[in-house]
Design a protein that fits this description.
12 helices; alpha/beta; globular; single chain; eight-stranded parallel beta sheet; eight-stranded mixed beta sheet; 36% helix; ornithine cyclodeaminase, domain 1; 329 residues; 16 strands; Rossmann fold; 2 domains
Length: 329
């Protein structure tokens, strides 16, 4: 039995969003139904390196298929300047649940970008207005690209406003998409006035003010993934129909973690988990709704679902590098 090694290009090539978005939606549903196991994300803090490691194991039963895996991922903010390396690196081990054979080892960085975009698309599909045509993005890093690609799968996005302090990153983003969308750089306020807003920054002091948000905007708060991170003004969270991915993770390290710890935001302010909406236990957007927010921390079941899609296509297409990890061939 060979284990398939898949680098970032292999992952990107074999992650069609038309399949990835529904796979992530099914992961949320499986978790809500109790058909998934997902121990809490564990952290190893490395203050001497200004970084940390996170381990994210999960198993999910999607009915027609089941899958298991674990992602080992880091956040080292000094990597780009000190070592010419990405801030986030990740490795995903995707295993056969029946035999425990490691079917694939995947680049977890690209996998994370793809599944994070797909998660935003699932939330947007359930929480944004059907006629949403403009998308604002705050933060022009790698995550911004898959936010646009995935959200455009579920809404007819025409106009895009990208906001970032780094003008070169804005220019690269605009150049990438200018043939497909009416895309331009702009302020945070201009981005926040769009029909849909995705925030993908690592800030700890909120940068999106309440008055900037459009009356019927849906916000995907994607940047906060550790304690202390906080992108949106508290009034945005309190005024919105607020949806989370997982209570334990969001209260610890999601967008709501700071106001929740301070008691500014409480459980009664949370409308639902996204899985509850996907399975129909709680309503998504209704005609009475104005502002909606999805607080995404990123769940291990998303990685497993994404790895399932990627591995299946890579195996069919003979992509990647098969090797005898177990020494059984």
């Amino acid at each position: 039995m060979k284990t398939l090694l898949l680098n970032g290009d292999d992952v990107a090539e074999n992650a069609p969003l038309a399949e990835l978005v529904p796979a992530i939606e099914e992961a949320f549903a499986a978790y809500e139904r109790g058909d998934a196991q997902m121990p809490p994300k564990s952290y190893i803090d490395l203050p001497q390196y200004n970084g940390d490691f996170r381990s994210m194991p999960a198993y999910m039963d999607a009915g027609d298929w089941d899958a298991a895996g674990i992602k080992w991922v880091n956040v080292h903010p000094d990597n780009p300047t000190d070592h010419d390396l990405p801030t986030v690196l990740g490795t995903m081990v995707y295993s056969d649940p029946e035999t425990a054979v490691p079917l694939a080892i995947l680049d977890g960085t690209e996998l994370t970008m793809q599944r994070t975009g797909a998660a935003a698309a699932v939330a947007t599909d359930h929480l944004a207005r059907q006629d949403a045509k403009s998308l604002g993005i705050v933060g022009a890093g790698a995550q911004a690209y898959t936010q646009l690609e995935a959200i455009a799968e579920v809404r007819p996005i025409e106009r895009v406003v990208i906001s970032d302090l780094d003008e070169e990153r804005v220019e690269r983003f605009v150049s990438r998409f200018e043939d497909r969308f009416d895309v331009s750089g702009g302020s945070i306020e201009e981005a926040a006035s769009c029909d849909v807003l995705s925030t993908v920054t690592p800030v700890e002091d909120p940068i999106v003010p309440r008055e900037a948000i459009g009356e019927h905007t849906h916000v995907n708060a994607m940047g906060a993934d550790a304690e202390g991170k906080h992108e949106l003004a508290d009034d945005i969270l309190l005024d919105a129909k607020l949806v989370i991915d997982d209570h334990a993770q969001t209260t610890h390290s999601g967008e709501i973690n700071v106001p929740y710890a301070e008691g500014t935001l409480i459980d009664d302010d949370i409308h639902a988990a996204i899985g509850e909406i996907v399975v129909g236990d709680r309503p998504g957007r209704t005609s009475e709704d104005g502002l909606t927010v999805f607080d995404s921390t990123g769940l291990a079941i998303q990685d497993v679902a994404a790895a399932h899609v990627v591995y299946g296509h890579a195996d069919e297409n003979d992509n990647g590098y098969p090797f005898d990890l177990l020494g059984l061939s």
